[in-house]
Amino acid sequence: MAPFVDGSVAAPFSLRGRRGLVLGIANEHSIAYGCARAFRAAGAELAVTYVNDKAKPFVEPLAEALGCSITAPCDVRIPGQLEALFERIEREWGRLDFVLHSIAYAPKEDLHGRVTDCSAAGFAMAMDVSCHSFIRIARLAEPLMRQGGCLLTVSFYGSERVVEHYNLMGPVKAALESTARYLAAELGPKDIRVHAISPGPMRTRAASGLDRFDELLERAAAQAPQKRLASIDDVGALAAYLVGDGGKMLTGTVIPVDGGQHVMAS
Predict the structure, then answer these.
(1) Within 10 A of 206 (CB to CB), how many other CB atoms are there?
(2) Could you count the other beta carbons within 10 Å of the beta carbon of residue 81?
(3) Phi, psi of 130 (to 5 degrees)
(4) pLDDT (tens digit, 9 = 90+) per residue, 53-100?
(5) Each residue of 196-229: pLDDT tens digit?
């Protein structure tokens, strides 16, 4: 896999000279990896994370191919690990221009059951990892974005409509989207923009944990006006636009990337 070193994209799409953090790459099929490729192709310098030693062999080769300056472990459930990551970024870079948060988790027994039956502990864990971690990232990134910046997270339309088998993640993603709006309002005076990108269903490692996910993919492709599913590169193209100068007057939005499926009644 050839490294991305060109950065010759014309303004306002160039990210040359900008530094960004990407959290949530699990493998080459991850939405976060599609975004990282787009950021790097536009000229950005990147830091990427892997969740644990088991994931490290899958993520490190991708980071090397992207020419990442920083590759580090980050499990938001481990006290101090996220803070250590930002301390390293401050020490080695001194600033940060954008962050992509593509992290979600719910215990399997709670994810596969009814929302009615989910445990308090499972609900709290899903909210902490999938939503509150974005708030923590915003708080840590704020002092490093002295000249402004952009924070992105990844949602799903199960936040606003009931999607069969999406279950507990529906309420969690609804909270995440609301969080993005409030962060946008609070951080806007510092020229820090915040968005939630909402792709349609994709065949990623995280999505494979959903019950009967193949059926969801088939229905989504059939319902979408464009009759196909978005790819991780489609999401990456939008993410790169949002963190660049082209998106400088956009903030607080939930942006669908789903071939138009969100406009359909069913």
Answers:
(1) 19
(2) 15
(3) -85, -25
(4) 999 999 999 999 999 999 999 999 999 999 999 999 999 999 999 999
(5) 999 977 665 555 555 566 676 677 677 777 777 8
* Terminal CA-CA length for the chain: 40
Angle (CA) 100-106-111 rounded to 5° is 130
Which pair of structure tokens corresponds to residue 193? 């923009």
Taking the C-alpha atoms of residue 200 and residue 247, their distance in angstroms, rounded to an integer, is 22
Strand partners, 101: 23, 153
Q: Are 224 and 181 in contact, with CB atoms under 8 Å apart?
A: no
Contact residues for 15 (Cβ-Cβ < 8 A; gap 6+) = 7, 9, 39, 42, 43, 44, 240, 243, 244
Side chain identity, residue 7: G
* Among 38, 259, 39, residue whose Cα is nearest residue 157: 259
Active site residues: 166, 173
